[in-house]
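Translate sequence into structure tokens.
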Amino acid sequence: MERRNVYYKVLEYPVVQYITLRQRILYSGDIKEGLYNLGNDIRMIQNDAELASYIRFYKIEDFDGVIDFENNVIVIALNYTINDTKYRTNRIYTFGNIERDRIQISSFSKELFYRKHLYFLCYDWEGKKLPIHRQIYLLN
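Result follows.
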């Protein structure tokens, strides 16, 4: 399905009323065999200690990103690759592909968020909503 058709299907308002969040991919790779895999999920990380625990847990050896958490948030996508994001009020709509046994770590600037509570909604490119374990985060 074409992107614009997915946007029409999923978004409540015309796409021009949403902010497209610029994504900086810091890492994309395979989840090591034998690790507990939760299915599709999104995690928003806001400090070094939390990021370090995920890097250790998923045994990511070649991650060397220095993160400015004062101005950025980190989003970890499991079994899902984020290709596009739209933001309005407190909702972050992510669009991407389901990719089993993959992890993606991305950075997003905090400057465009104008609400403290952020609600993640994940969709594939057919417009199907994907279940995730935790959807609401409080921005520091």
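Note: The first helix runs from residue 3 to 10.
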